[in-house]
């Protein structure tokens, strides 16, 4: 676990990109709320303020444009935190570097494709395919780490 | 933090099982959605496709059978990620192995019991008991690590 | 990564406090549900039991007092798990201790201020300010770790 180690570096690059992605999703939600001036969630968000100079009083109504970003954020939250842990435990098993790169960078690419498919409202099947690749990567690493820990 | 170390191995075994559990919860939601052909969340999921050969147009209505699995997933998300971090920080304090095994495997067992109690709709009290055991394990480890870090 | 190392200690102190905070948010939700005897989420929670000696049958209705705590918990879940990972990767780059303390303890203070602003229903702007500080800390560390990993 130091930055001179290529396996650890592969993990850090993947983890940093994913964390920027998921934090960015929160900002996409903020951008969308401010753009449509709707989809807020707290009663006090209906009040006049810098974020809301001309309140209409019903800005806490659900807005599909905003909700889509929230669902994407929620889906990230069901995948990325677990990847961040199991990815680290996986590289600590010292796998060949190219395998680690395929699995970790593959997960990053699958999630970025999932992002594009979700935000452009592609079919359920397209979105599910990228979700499945990511989910399989996490579960595969978990099974491998479990096997590795039980074996030793 | 290497797989030859029994404390670290205890952590990896717990973490891997929990990550498989929470990822599996996502797949239970998928299974339930496809079984009842309902409880989808995106407008485009109403469209015809491989996952949805005979769309009825109202498949994004909320479905309690599906929602239960989502609530279980959400409850996992409020517990497991924090365990995954504090469990690692806890074993790095080098506690006696048997204590680490009781706390870490105890958490895993409590969450698996919570899963069974939740999916079979046991009483609030039964479900809350297993939730409480898990929550206390996390908070206990957090207090211990905080104490340990402040002491040194 | 050992407790004799001031950088690691800074991380452990921040992480432990944040984990206690987010677990505590779950208990605030429980407290609020039991106080107003409402805002439960499962059909079986309407049944008579130790937690619910006098069921009224409609205790799964949404309750704003309870929902506020759930939204706070959800906001924590969109920030704290990512901090817990990137904070560790950041201190492994061996930054000067005072910088690590500003960023990590700064994040903790920003989230505690966010908690106070949220639970007392301060304006959207006040809450958003503390959210933004925390979000910037996470994204700044992610960019720094990415740069550091790519550079080496």
What does this structure look like?
With 152 residues, chain A is mainly α. Chain A has one domain: Membrane associated eicosanoid/glutathione metabolism-like domain (Four Helix Bundle (Hemerythrin (Met), subunit A)). Chain A contains five helices and no strands. Chain A has helices spanning 6-36, 64-77, 80-91, 97-119, 124-151. In chain A, helix 1 (6-36) packs antiparallel against helix 3 (80-91), helix 1 (6-36) runs parallel beside helix 4 (97-119) and helix 4 runs antiparallel to helix 5 (124-151). Chains B and C meet through helix 2, helix 3 and helix 5 of B and helix 1 and helix 3 of C.
Topology:
3 copies of one chain form a homotrimer.
Chain A: H1 6-36, H2 64-77, H3 80-91, H4 97-119, H5 124-151
Summarize this structure as a short list of keywords or feature phrases.
homotrimer, 152 residues, mainly alpha, Four Helix Bundle (Hemerythrin (Met), subunit A)
SS-based class of chain A? mainly alpha
The CATH H-level homologous superfamily of chain A: Membrane associated eicosanoid/glutathione metabolism-like domain
Low-confidence parts of chain A? none
Return Rg of chain A in Å: 19 Å
Number of domains of chain A: 1
Helix content of chain A: over 70%
| Order of helix and strand elements from N to C terminus of chain A | HHHHH
Question: Using CB atoms under 8 Å apart, which protein chain pair has the greatest interface?
Answer: A-B, 32 and 34 residues
Count up the helices of chain A. Answer: 5
Largest sheet descriptor of chain A = none
- Shape descriptor of chain A: elongated
Strand content of chain A: under 5%
Average of the residue pLDDT scores of chain A: 96
């Amino acid at each position: 676990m130091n930055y001179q180690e290529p396996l650890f570096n592969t993990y850090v690059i993947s983890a940093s990109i994913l964390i920027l992605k998921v934090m960015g999703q929160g900002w996409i939600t903020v951008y969308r709320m401010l753009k449509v001036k709707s989809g807020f969630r707290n009663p006090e968000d209906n009040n006049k303020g810098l974020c809301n100079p001309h309140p209409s009083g019903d800005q806490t109504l659900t807005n599909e444009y905003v909700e889509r970003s929230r669902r994407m954020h929620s889906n990230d939250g069901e995948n990325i935190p677990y990847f961040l842990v199991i990815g680290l435990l996986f590289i600590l098993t010292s796998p060949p570097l190219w395998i680690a790169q395929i699995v970790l960078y593959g997960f990053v690419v699958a999630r970025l494709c999932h992002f594009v498919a979700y935000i452009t409202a592609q079919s359920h099947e397209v979105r599910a395919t990228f979700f499945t690749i990511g989910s399989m990567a996490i579960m595969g690493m978990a099974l491998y780490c479990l096997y590795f820990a039980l074996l030793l």
